[in-house]
Structure formats: C-alpha cells, structure tokens
Design a protein that fits this description.
The protein is α+β, with helices and mostly antiparallel strands and 427 residues long. It has helices at residues 4-11, 13-37, 54-89, 95-99, 102-125, 136-161, 164-185, 216-222, 260-266, 282-297, 304-322, 346-361, 365-381, 384-404, 408-425; strands at residues 52-53, 133-134, 201-204, 209-214, 229-232, 239-240, 245-250, 270-273, 328-333, 337-342. The protein is built from 15 helices and ten strands. The chain has a five-stranded mixed sheet, covered by helices on one side. Strand 9 and strand 10 form a beta hairpin.
Length: 427
C-alpha cells in the first residue's frame, strides 16, 4: 500500500508537475546571470553563437515575455474548455484524468517559468552597457523553442484525450493494475470468526472522508509488542463520518498498552481524505466507466457505441474479480498482531456496475446484446460461488429482457445467448 507521503504527492501531483518546470527555469536563470555578471568566468570557453549584445537581448526578452504570457493564457483557456467538455460529455469524475496529465501542467509550468525567466533576465540586462555581450537573449530564444515543442505535444495529447475510446482505455488500464494488486493482497484462507461476544476497544474517526489507504509500516511501529486483532469497521473506499467507529482493537493481554497516546497514533495508520484515489481504490475506476456508460445511454447524449465499449471494458475488469471469492485482507503487525479489513464482494461490485447499467439500458437491443456478451465473459472465468450468483441474477434479468422486446428476431437472439450463458454456468 501507498504511505502517506506518496499519497500526499499524488494528491498534489498537478502542483509538482507545474513547479518542476518553474524551478528549472529559475535554475537556468541563475546559471545565465552567473555567466553574464561574473568576472571570473572566461567567455572564451563558451561558443560565440550564444552571445549577443545587451541591447539585442533586451529586445528579444521583451518580445519573449509578452508572447509566453499570452500563450500561457491561451493554454489555460484550452485546459478549462477540455475540462468542461469532459464534465458535460462523460462525467465530472473523469475531469482529473485530463487535469492530472503530466503534459497538461508541464506546458503551463514551462510557459510561466519562461515568462519569469524573461522578465527577470530583462531587468538585469538593462543594467549592462548596450554593447556588453550576454547569453540571456539567445538562451531565452532556445527556451522559447522548447516551449513551442511542449505546446505541440500538448495539442497532440489534447486531441488524443478528446477521443472517448482513449479515455476509456486509460481508465481501464489504471483500474486493471489496481485490481491486480488488490487481488494479490487478498487472503484466500484466513477469516475472522465470530467476534460478537469478544471484548474490544473502539477507535472513533477523528475526521470525515473516504478511507483510501492503510499504512502498514506505521501500524508495525505502533503495535511492536501487540498481541491481538485490529478490525476495521468500514470497507476501504467507504465514506466515514467524524466520531463514527473506525476500528475495533481486540486484545486480552495487552489492553493496558492501548492508551490515549496510542489511539492518537493509530489515526496515522488510516489515510482518510475528501476525495477518492483511483490508484488505491479499483471501485473508483469501475464507477467512472459505469457513469460514462450511463451518460452515453442518456437521452441527451444517445451514444450506444461508447456505452458498448465501456461495457466490454467493464466485463474484462469484472472477470478478474469474479475469479476470487475472498474479499478480506489480513496483514501482520508487530510480532503477534493482525490487522483485518475487507472490501466489497463480487456480488456488490456486479450490482454497482452491470445492474445499474441494465436499469438505464431501456429497450436498446444493441446494449442488451453487449450485456449478454459481458455475462458470458464473466461466467467463463467465475468461481463456483460467483457462477451460482451470476446464474441467479442473469436469469432474473433475462426474463425481464424477453418481456420488454416484441420483435421475434431480438427475442431469439437473446435466447441463444442466454442458453450459451446457462451452459457455461452449469459446468
């Protein structure tokens, strides 16, 4: 799992990308001013092509500062337009997918950094004799060419991002990696027995937000000599209200070790924040794809091709989850301690994705056909337990679908696909 420092950097990644190039421009400015103002650096060791008169450099830097600021404003307007398009055409959840792209903030950082470089270098060159050879002007030209290159890459990336299939693929790829990591961490055998009658110490949440990550390293430091079980009362990714029970600590021998100081330290184990994180919570990615599908099916958009593509991607992601029955995690903390928490079951994930899509599909035969194909993909890879669940819920859906459609060809096609599904489910 990610620690708090990495999550902080992830949440502030737009600032990190932006300030990275602003700082680089300041480093470049420092080096240029050092060369132009220092008497100890021999200019003979630098190529003559870098040098120009201070008067010429002033003219270049003045024009460059105006151009860079204007293009930075234009770039920012473009970013806002794309974000508005994302929010209205897909779902507000996917706005971050464009805003957090490296090139989006890097191009702004490059232009703002270039503006800062030009303004400060211009002020310094005004203090020189008009014929004094300086490198500030020509270095500024090279910096400007670099900005043009970044602007070109930005436009190409923007055009690519506006294509919905690329957005869906990006979300799917990120979610697939998170699912793989999540399944790797799940415990397939250990399960907490009935704890109803056991004594425990209740830990109340000190803030409201989503439980997005658990810091096992911090937990190991706090519970070095602990013998017992830390049981999370909420699923990872759920919203927790301040003063609501966050966890229970079950211990017989070491209850005296759990004092107010330790309780305060325990808060550092759980990362709670206002927004969800796609790199720790696979359900956030599933939610994005589900919402894109539902938006595409809405009367305002009516884009069945996008909905079909999303359903296919969802079926591939959900097929990974269908292979596993377990939805709990057990981690060692300290020498004898355990931390136990759980996530949503496959049944709940199925309801939050395919059942919601089914309820919005209406009487669109193309979408129904794709849903049948998705169910076949799921049941093909599902465990016995999940096969039984799918057989029951899909049968219910099938009976309702058949009643909705009057065309014989539609009904026959759905029946064929359902029979294929049933044959695989009964194996």
């Amino acid at each position: 799992m990610l620690n708090n420092a990495k999550i902080f950097l992830y949440n502030k990644r737009t600032w990190v990308y932006f300030l990275q190039y602003v700082l680089l421009s300041l480093v470049l400015l420092t080096a240029v001013l050092l060369v132009d103002t220092s008497d100890t650096i021999d200019h003979r060791y630098l190529p003559e092509v870098f040098f120009t008169s201070a008067e010429s450099a002033q003219s270049v830097l003045s024009s460059l500062s105006s151009a860079l600021l204007s293009i930075a404003t234009f770039t920012f307007t473009t970013i806002i337009s794309v974000l508005t398009f994302y929010s209205s055409s897909f779902t507000p959840r996917v706005v971050e997918n464009f805003a957090s792209k490296k090139i989006t903030m890097k191009v702004l950082g490059a232009f703002i950094g270039g503006f800062i470089y030009s303004i400060i270098a211009l002020n310094f060159t005004k203090t020189y004799n008009s014929e004094t050879p300086v490198i500030a002007g020509n270095i500024g030209v090279l910096y400007g060419l670099l900005c043009v290159l970044y602007l070109t890459i930005f436009f190409q990336e923007t055009i690519k991002s506006l294509q919905v299939t690329n957005l869906i693929t990006e979300i799917s790829d990120i979610t697939s990696k998170v699912i793989d990591e999540d399944l790797k961490d799940r415990d397939r055998e250990y399960n907490v027995k009935d704890l109803e009658n056991s004594q425990y110490i209740s830990v109340l949440s000190n803030k409201s937000g989503y439980l997005e990550a658990i810091n096992y390293t911090e937990a190991g430091d706090i519970f070095k000599n602990f013998s017992g079980l830390v049981y999370l009362s909420h699923k990872r990714g759920e919203f927790i209200v301040e003063s609501e029970e966050l966890a229970r600590i079950y211990t017989k021998k070491d209850s005296e070790l759990i004092n107010d100081k330790v309780i305060k330290e325990i808060y550092d184990i759980f990362h709670i924040q206002e927004n969800k994180i796609s790199i720790t919570d696979y359900r956030y990615g599933l939610d994005k794809l589900t919402e894109i599908t539902i938006t595409a099916l809405s009367s305002d958009v009516r884009d069945p091709s996008t909905a079909t593509h999303c359903i296919r991607k969802l079926s591939l992601l959900m097929s990974k989850l269908s292979k596993v029955d377990s939805n709990h995690y057990v981690k060692n903390i300290g020498d004898k301690g355990l931390i136990y928490y759980f996530t949503q079951s496959f049944e709940q994930d199925f309801y939050d994705t395919f059942v919601h899509i089914y309820n919005h599909a209406g009487e669109t035969s193309e979408i129904m056909n794709t849903l049948y194909d998705a169910f076949i993909i799921l049941v093909t890879s599902a465990s016995d337990k999940n096969k039984a669940f799918l057989a029951e819920v899909v049968q219910d859906m099938h009976e309702n679908i058949i009643d909705k459609f009057n065309l014989t060809c539609d009904r026959e096609n759905f029946e064929k696909k359902y029979q294929r599904f049933s044959a695989i489910a009964s194996r």
